[in-house]
Structure formats: structure tokens, C-alpha cells
Write a structure and sequence with these properties.
about 525 residues; elongated; single chain; Isoleucyl-tRNA Synthetase, Domain 1; 18 helices; seven-stranded parallel sheet; alpha/beta; about 45% helix; 15 strands; binds 5'-O-[(L-methionyl)-sulphamoyl]adenosine; four-stranded antiparallel sheet; Rossmann fold; 2 domains
């Protein structure tokens, strides 16, 4: 059976504030999802929220609310954030949903039945604020604990452990046999280096109910709830299983029954891409594959790790006001301008630094003066000189544009989004240069040059059409405007329609209006 292209983002902590980093990850995943839809594939794109754990329980308590009510309220804000970013996710998972819990419990039951879990004693340092077990190696040079850990005390506690150490050799082999399992390569090398030099410890996958009750109950021991990372990672798999995807349900046969799956629907699991930030690579590239392998579930194809954003060279922090509010930027400058900047500025993997001046410079140069100016002057001249009717086809720019398009599509297939944008802007620059070189406003003054003017106007209009196609995963709203201004039906975009010659002679274009109004520099959002 066919499989859909399945992409996920990390699921955000429900008690955090949505900011640039979260928006960036969702936009990158959204562009990749739209690329695959544009290539004619069926896609399943999942994002959502990580809602269990001690911090949520404490925060809810501090506000005098039940944890569930507290999460329900915040989940509304997060869903709205995703909606306003124009994200085309197919589902939105919350780890407090019954559909997710049932799958996590089935996975735990299977691991327990197989003998992969055992009860053991933990004795060591613990920070309730960070929900972290610590060792003496985590102390500061002067022997004290970092204040962000809050109060640290010694803890003796029984928990259930997952025999992760059994799988270390297998995981190293998996990394070696699948060089693209973790991308970029420098992140892969970091994880592989760690796997080869340090012995994996078994993972404590429970917390005693007496200390924490905001978690998924352990199906075989009522004294415990599930550790949040075991719970959270499973979201990627629980949703396809809960939907009834046979590829996800079969490994849990006897432990779980998913919903009914329509015969003809392509499957979802395994994930093709798990997109997440560099800080949580170890969870996704070590814990997660071992959890799956132990449960007999096929592994995801790729863990794709992006970098972190700062603002003005500093860590973003609400308390100092050093934040970028993506929705404020989108309200002020347009959503597509925000999407463009973050994907254009960073190659996936590298860290970034947001500055308002950098954002505004790209807006002016690349969007307003580059793309916007090209589309506006090309279509305005076609209206003015030819009454908005497309002249006979001409292929003057077809080779150059065709080559850039092929390179762009190759980059898109390989998820090299920044490189794809550079190819698209090579077309924008070439077409703007072509206007300057051919000077259609001068040709229009001489009736003897009518045929030459036809050729120039066709080449420009066709460049705009192709740009509308190639830009559609990145700037969906702008791509739609370009199509409408070209008088084309707003059909779902197929990237293969980017071959030269799509505009037919005599076709009537629509009204040109500026795509990116020029703006005075000022505060960004
Ligand atoms: N809940 C966990 C993930 C569980 S996935 C099974 C978590 N949540 S988070 O809200 O802290 O982070 C969510 C995602 O946002 C992570 O991939 C993280 O790397 C990313 N980012 C958070 N801050 C960021 C920046 N400043 N810049 C870029 N991405 C950042 O971790």
C-alpha cells in the first residue's frame, strides 16, 4: 500500500509562550509539507502539545486551576498561534487526549510483557523545578548548583526502568547503515560519537504517583505515572495508530486496537521526517529509536535538527523583553514576509540571529524591490501595452529559467529550502535585469518594435507564472495573489507546472496590485 509523506514537529510545552523558535520550526515543517503536496504526494503533517509533567501541575496549582482546565485554556492559544501562522497541519495532538494515552499504555504493556522493563532504585540529586535527575558532574565549578535548577535535594526513589543499554550496539549499527538518519551530518556525528564513547544508562520511565500525578498512569503498576519524555515522544506514533493506520496498529496487535482505516487510504507510519531543535536531538536520535525498536515498530527515516534563534545576539527572554512576536511581525508586514525571512535567513541546522534591521533589509530588497517590483511592472506593462492579453509564446528566457527551476526542484526534494529560495531569486534577478536590458517602455513607443515587445512581455509574464508555482510552498498567500493577478484559476499548485510555456496566447490576465508595499523602516513588530 502507498504511504503518505509523514512529517512532524516537536510538540511544544503547553506552559511555554509561543515565540519565534516555535514559529520557525512550524514554518519549516509547513514548507516541507507543501513541497511534498506540490510534488503530488499525499502528506500527513502533525504538530501539537506536550502537556504532562510536574511544571504544568505546579503552574496549574499556582493559578488555582485543575491541570486539565489549565491545559485546555493554553491549548486554545497554541492552536490559534498555529492557525495564524498559516500552518497546513493535518492533525494537532495533545498528549492529554485519550487517543494518545491508550497507545502509550499499549506500548508500555508490550515492553513490560517482553521483559524490557524492571523496577530499580534511584539514589541521587534531583531538581523538582527542572524535573531532572542530576549527578555531581552537573555542579558548577565552585560545587554549587546552577540557580535555574531551583532547590536541589537528594532523592531515593523506586522507579521502572527501560533496558535501553541493551540496544546500544544495535543503534550504532543503525546509524552506520543509515547515514541520513540524523541530519545535518555534524549532528549525526555528535550523537554517534556519544554512542561510541559512553555507555548508555537504562532510562527511568516512571515517576511515583505520590510525587507527580499529572501523567499517563502506568498500566501495570497503579503507583506510577509515565515519564514525560516517554509520553511525549510517543505522540508521533500514537496519532497514526489511533487513526487506525495498519502499519502503526500491527506492531501493537494484542495490546491495542486502532480506529477503522479506509481500505484505499495510504498509510502514515513510519515518519519520513521528525523536525526538531538541536537541544532535543538526543531524545529523538537515541531514546526514540530504541523505544521503537524494542516495541517492534519500524523506525522513522530521518531526524532533521534545526538551529536556534537569538534576537540581537542574545538569548530571547520574556523577562528582559528581548523577544520577537511572530504574529505581531506578520500583522505588521504580512505573514509571507515573516515566513520568507526565517527560511531565507537560515539553512536548516544553523543558528540564527534576528535583527529588525536585517528583516527590513530583506523585505525591501528581496520582496518589495525584487519580487514585488518584477511582478508589478511585468503585469502592468502587459495591461497597458496589450490590454492584458498574453502575446504569442516566446522562449527567450526558457533555458536559463528552466535550469534554475531544475536546480530549485532538486533542492526542494532534498529539503534544502534556503538553496531553493536562492534559485528562485536568481530567476527574479534575471527577469528584472531583462526588463532593464530590453526596456519594454521604450519598445512600446515604436510601432516597428511591436513583435519584440510581444516577446519581452511573454517572457516576463511566464517568469511571473513560474515564480508563482515555485514560491507556493514558501509564500502560499503571495503565490495565490500572483496566480490571481495572472488570471489563473486558484487550483492547488503542482510544482511540475513550473516548466516553461504554461501561458497560452490570448489568455487574459487580471489586475496587477503591489505584492509587498514599500515601507518606511521602523520597529518590526
Ligand atoms: N516538549 C518538548 C519537545 C517534545 S517532542 C516529543 C520541547 N518543547 S519546547 O516547547 O521547549 O520546544 C519545542 C521546539 O521549539 C523544540 O524543537 C525546540 O528546539 C524549539 N525551540 C525552542 N526555542 C527555540 C529557539 N530559540 N530557536 C529555534 N527553535 C527553538 O522541547
Amino acid at each position: 500500500m502507498n504511504k503518505r509523506f509523514y512529517i512532524t514537529t516537536a510538540i511544544d510545552y503547553v506552559n511555554g509562550q509561543p515565540h519565534l523558535g516555535h514559529a520557525y520550526e512550524k514554518v519549516v515543517a509547513d514548507v516541507i509539507a507543501r513541497v511534498h503536496r506540490g510534488l503530488g504526494e499525499e502528506v500527513f503533517f502533525l504538530t501539537g502539545l506536550d502537556e504532562h509533567g510536574q511544571k504544568v501541575q505546579q503552574a496549574a496549582h499556582a493559578e488555582g486551576k485543575s491541570a486539565q482546565v489549565y491545559c485546555d485554556e493554553l491549548a486554545l492559544q497554541w492552536r490559534e498561534f498555529v492557525r495564524q501562522l498559516g500552518i497546513s497541519n493535518d492533525d494537532f495532538v495533545r498528549t492529554t487526549e485519550p487517543r494518545h494515552k491508550a497507545v502509550v499504555q499499549a506500548m508500555l504493556t508490550k515492553l513490560h510483557a517482553q521483559g524490557d522493563l524492571y523496577k530499580g532504585e534511584y539514589r541521587g540529586w534531583y531538581s523538582p523545578r527542572q524535573e531532572a535527575f542530576l549527578t555531581d558532574r552537573d555542579r558548577l565549578p565552585d560545587g554549587s548548583w546552577d540557580p535555574i535548577l531551583g532547590e536541589v535535594f537528594e532523592l531515593v526513589e523506586e522507579n521502572w526502568y527501560f533496558r535501553m543499554s541493551r540496544y546500544q550496539g544495535w543503534l550504532i549499527e543503525h546509524f552506520e547503515a543509515n547515514p541520513a538518519f540524523v541530519v545535518p551530518e555534524y549532528r549525526r556525528n555528535e550523537v554517534l560519537g556519544f554512542l561510541k564513547s559512553e555507555k548508555l544508562k537504562d532510562l527511568s520511565i516512571t515517576r511515583p504517583l505520590a510525587r507527580l500525578n499529572w501523567g499517563i498512569p502506568l498500566p501495570f503498576d497503579p503507583e506510577y505515572v509515565t515519564y514525560v519524555w516517554f509520553d511525549a515522544l510517543s505522540n508521533y506514533y500514537s496519532v497514526p495508530a489511533a487513526l487506525g493506520d495498519p502499519g502503526a496498529v500491527e506492531p501493537l496487535a494484542g495490546y491495542y486496537r486502532g480506529g477503522a482505516w479506509p481500505e484505499s487510504t495510504p498509510g502514515i507510519w513510519p515518519a519520513d521526517v521528525h523536525l526538531l531543535g538541536k537541544d532535543i536531538v538526543k531524545f529523538h536520535a537515541v531514546y526514540w529509536p530504541i523505544m521503537l525498536q524494542a516495541t517492534g515498530i519500524p523506525l522513522p527515516r530521518q531526524v532533521l535538527a534545526h538551529g536556534w534563534w537569538q534576537k540581537d545576539g542574545q538569548k530571547m527572554s520574556k523577562s528582559t523583553g528581548n523577544v520577537v512576536d511572530p504574529l505581531a511581525v506578520a500583522r505588521e508586514w504580512g505573514l509571507d514576509a515573516f515566513r520568507f525571512y526565517v527560511v531565507r535567513e537560515l539553512d536548516i541546522g544553523a543558528d540564527g540571529n534576528w535583527t529588525d534591521a536585517g528583516f527590513q533589509a530583506r523585505y525591501q530588497a528581496e520582496l518589495a524591490n525584487g519580487l514585488g517590483n518584477l511582478v508589478n511592472r511585468s503585469l502592468s506593462m502587459l495591461q497597458r501595452y496589450r490590454g492584458g492579453r498574453v502575446p504569442a509564446p516566446s522562449a527567450e528566457l526558457s533555458i536559463e529559467v528552466g535550469q534554475a527551476t531544475v536546480r530549485c526542484l532538486d533542492h526542494l526534494r532534498a529539503h534544502r529550502l534556503q538553496a531553493a529560495l536562492l534559485e528562485i531569486w536568481a530567476i527574479v534577478s534575471r527577469a528584472n535585469q531583462y526588463v532593464d536590458q530590453t526596456a519594454p517602455f521604450r519598445l512600446a513607443k515604436e510601432p516597428a518594435h511591436a513583435q519584440r515587445l510581444d516577446q519581452v512581455l511573454y517572457n516576463l509574464a511566464e517568469c511571473c507564472r513560474i515564480l508563482g508555482v515555485l514560491l507556493s510552498p514558501f509564500l502560499p498567500e503571495t503565490a495565490g495573489k500572483i496566480q490571481r493577478q495572472l488570471g489563473l484559476e486558484p487550483a492547488p499548485v503542482r510544482l511540475m507546472d513550473s516548466t516553461w510555456g504554461g501561458l497560452a496566447e490570448g489568455h487574459r490576465i487580471g489586475e496587477p496590485t503591489p505584492l509587498f508595499p514599500r515601507r518606511e523602516p521602523g520597529r518590526t513588530g
